[in-house]
Structure formats: C-alpha cells, structure tokens
Amino acid sequence: MTAAAAAPAHRCVLLTALSSTALLLACGCTSTITPPPTPADPVTIFVLREAMHTGLVLPPQPGHAGYVEFGYGDWNWFALGNDAWYHAFATVLWPTRGALGRRSFGADTAAELQRFVHWATLSPVVVSRERAGQLRERLEREFAAGQADVVRRDDLGFAFVPSQDSYWFGYNCADMAAGWLRELDCAVSWVPIRIAVATD
Questions:
Q1: In terms of C-beta density within 10 A (0-12 exposed, 13-18 middle, 19 or more buried), how is residue 113 classed?
Q2: pLDDT, tens digit, for every residue of 126-161?
Q3: Structurally, how many domains does the chain consist of?
Q4: Contact 173/113 with Cβ under 8 angstroms?
Q5: Are 97 and 76 in contact (CB under 8 A)?
Q6: Within a domain: residue 116?
Q7: Cα(188)–Cα(175) distance, integer angstroms
Q8: Enclosing domain of residue 128
Q9: Which of 1-15, 17-31, 138-152, 158-172 shows the lowest mean pLDDT across its residues?
Q10: d(CA 122, CA 154)
Q11: Exposed, middle or buried by CB within 10 Å (0-12, 13-18, 19+), for 155?
Q12: Are 101 and 70 a contacting pair, CB within 8 Å?
C-alpha cells in the first residue's frame, strides 16, 4: 500500500473509533441505581452530580460529624487543577494517577445539606445505616492514610489524596461511585462508558 493510500485508511480508522465512542456516549452513559429493598435501620445517602462529576455524600456517623462527600478523579486534572483542554487526552485515553477527594459541607441534617448544595443535583438513596457507616469509616481511613500528600483546592472545597486506583475514561468518578453504592447493597446497572449514575 502506498503512503497516499495509507493516509485515508488511517483517517477512516480514526473516524470509526471516534464515531463509536460518540455512539457509546449517546446511547448508554447513565447507570440506574436500585436501592436495597428493605435496609435495616435505614438512612439516606445522596448521589451528587454536577457537570461531569459524580460523588457520594454520606451522613454523619459517631466520630465523624456532618455530611461529607467522597469523589474520585484524575490527580493532574482534579487535584492539581491542570484542566486546560490539551490535558484532557492524557486524562481519559490511558490510565493515569487517581485522586480520592473529600469535602465537607458543614451540614448536620439532610435539610441543611440540600439548602447548602444548590449548585448540584442531590439524589437520595435509602440504605442500611450500618453499611453507610462502614463505607464512611473505610473511606475516612483511606483518606487519612494519604495525608502526607494531601492537596487542597479551596475553589472546589475539596481536599485530595492519591488513590490506589488509576483513572481513565473506562474507570472514572461514576464508576468509583457505582462501586461504593454496591458496597451499600445497591444494584447499579452496567453501561459501556459510565459518566453518571441516577436513582431508579
């Protein structure tokens, strides 16, 4: 094959890949959450969605006051704020260093939380209080273990520590949130590329 013939072939492969990605995003990027049917000692947690970010807001627990959100993203983009357009390719096309984010809202009740978080969508999910407490304890320990490398972004209200998981378009904040929800005995539907999770 000549170089002239190879160039259109390469363009065709690239266009096919881009078209397939666009089709996947258009057809299936939102997962559906089905809460556990009869959780013992029920408590409400919230899925927070803003723009392309999905996080999980967990309620106060003994030893941990106030509602707190845990989120996940790319370390360079989310934690360090290197969010110029030309960084997007490295962020999504191959696995990069992940970041575990934590932000508190100064809210002790669900009503206070919903008044405070006016810029995002909060979707309530009723789960077992014990399970919610166990998840918060685990994430608090994971966050505390990374304190030596903590990065704070006052513009977002988040503090970040490195995550053991790699970030890319095949495993992003919505995938991490889906895993956390499964720890709470929720069922989360599978989609090829996940950019959001929504309640049933």
A1: buried
A2: 999 999 999 999 999 999 999 999 999 999 999 999
A3: 1
A4: no
A5: yes
A6: yes
A7: 10
A8: 31-199
A9: 1-15
A10: 21
A11: exposed
A12: yes
Q: Which two tokens stand for residue 76?
A: 């360079």
DSSP one-letter code for 86 = G
- 125 is a domain residue: yes
Residue 98 lies in a domain: yes
109 contacts: CB under 8 Å, gap ≥ 6: none
Angle between helices 129-145 and 173-183 (to 10 degrees): 130
CB-count burial class (<10 Å; 0-12, 13-18, 19+) for 189: middle
Give me the sign of the Cα torsion angle 165, 167, 173, 175.
Answer: negative
Q: How many CA atoms lie within 13 A of 134 on its CB side?
A: 11
**In the structure, what pLDDT confidence band is assigned to residue 28 with cuts at 50, 70 and 90?**
very low
